[in-house]
User: Which sequence fits this backbone?
């Protein structure tokens, strides 16, 4: 039976959920790695290589560096993070729309004071990315009565979206956005896609949410846009450097919400179940599910 | 043309949206009242009566008092409040689940510290009420992957619910609830339905949200339950007396969220559109939409 090397923040949690598997700490003895990408990269760099690397993350950009080998099968996690991402996105959109902090402050003063508010229904949600995470967010947006537009490399129609456009149409779509949510992976094509020129196309009442990768967004361009009063709010869960430097002006900007890369956390229960499913395919010699295409990086 | 009496908090907003109608301030000259229930009740009590009273609210309990006439047609507003109620319910459920206030406090200290969290997916949402407002909440719950159980007088199946049970089964269902949301109207049958006995059946990790009417919930029983640590949180938008007395211990309870009856506000645009639609029916002599049954009170 092929042995498994665990490279995660909580190996004990995986061991208890993968009871029938055999584990090893020796990368040379392990045909299969179940690993966080950033923990696997140094071993790959040292010349070790599995037959199959099962990433416990959706984002595998840490494995895409040019000096790393690509002659192994790489799978990532899909279908798990979508619901969590959707819950994060709508927690923040709705808390802002319905002014939860303002009412909490009023409650502390026993103050009964209603304020007018708007509705998500009829608003336009623009999603950068149309994969399974974006589809979950789109589905919830539709349940709230939003118009949902997706933007992807190809512009191929996907379930849950009212429209999907190719990235070439981005500049025409950004002015429509009441909320712009990026779930894009970190690839050369997405680097600083949200920059001075593209951010300037957003309506001043728009909310930007980045739950994909920090590299998609140019932080200086964001701060300039916010400081011009040309963007309502940015909700940022991912950054070019993580943890975000405590000296970053983003932390204290009144129109920025910072969270520490928690939009979708890997719960071992769900990831272990998906891994076991794929392990059965591996043992039967069948093609693995959720394979990553090294040429695309996702 | 039948004249219309406006009895709302913002009559000018309705006049501008109902441009072709004729208005009067004389209740005797008006066959039609477009009115907030609590503003119409005193005129009814004085002996005035329209042929048709179009309530701008969903809840018409202020018109159900035993000394008020019932020999007029009463309609209420439907289909408008559901999306707003759903946005309120999930704003509060998600803000709590994803600890938005905790992360805001960390941000103020430039502190990067993730915390574990759960998912709505797989949780059970119990809705007291299965009408159009509850159906909107159910639909969003399903989009988030929740199991959605409805409780109604009859137990008749309704779209969007995994199960609907008659009120007689309430005690068997409450122990299932991760979230219990009441959208019940104020009727004799719903008075203090949530009392010491029924609240005790909720799991200690449950969240109670009342967006229906205050009379459904016994506040002393709620406080006792919270103080025993036997309920995670109560989110209350409606109260037996509104505004809530500033001396109420609910204001300062750490596990209670108070909002000033804002879960679904009447936006004149939408209500005027629904009124005009019904006015056309009225003028054609057709049955009105959204008629209230005086024997049920909704």
Assistant:
């Amino acid at each position: 039976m092929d042995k498994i090397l665990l490279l995660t923040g909580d190996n004990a949690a995986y061991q208890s959920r993968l009871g029938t598997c055999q584990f090893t700490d020796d990368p040379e003895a392990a045909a299969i790695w179940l690993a966080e990408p950033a923990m696997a990269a140094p071993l790959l760099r040292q010349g070790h290589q599995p037959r199959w690397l099962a990433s416990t993350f959706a984002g595998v950009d840490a494995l895409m560096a040019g000096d790393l080998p690509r002659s192994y099968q790489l799978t990532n996690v899909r279908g798990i993070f979508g619901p969590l991402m959707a819950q994060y996105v709508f927690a923040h959109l709705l808390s802002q729309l319905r002014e939860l902090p303002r009412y909490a402050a009023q409650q502390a003063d026993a103050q009964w004071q209603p304020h007018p508010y708007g509705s998500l229904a009829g608003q336009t949600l623009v999603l950068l990315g149309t994969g399974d995470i974006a589809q979950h967010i789109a589905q919830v947006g539709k349940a709230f009565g939003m118009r949902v537009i997706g933007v992807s490399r190809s512009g191929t129609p996907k379930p849950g979206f009212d429209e999907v456009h190719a990235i070439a149409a981005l500049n025409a779509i950004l002015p429509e956005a009441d909320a712009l949510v990026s779930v894009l992976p970190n690839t050369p094509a997405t680097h600083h896609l949200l920059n001075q020129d593209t951010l300037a196309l957003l309506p001043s009442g728009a909310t930007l949410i980045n739950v994909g990768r920090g590299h998609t967004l140019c932080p200086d361009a964001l701060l300039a846009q916010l400081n011009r009063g040309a963007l309502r709010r940015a909700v940022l869960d991912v950054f070019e450097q993580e943890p975000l430097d405590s000296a970053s002006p983003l932390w204290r900007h009144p129109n920025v919400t910072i969270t520490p890369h928690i939009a979708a956390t890997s719960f071992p229960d769900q990831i272990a179940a998906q891994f076991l499913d794929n392990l059965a395919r591996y043992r039967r010699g069948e093609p693995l599910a959720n394979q990553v295409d090294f040429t695309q990086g996702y």
Observations:
- The first strand of chain B starts at residue 3 and ends at 7.
- The first helix of chain B runs from residue 11 to 17.
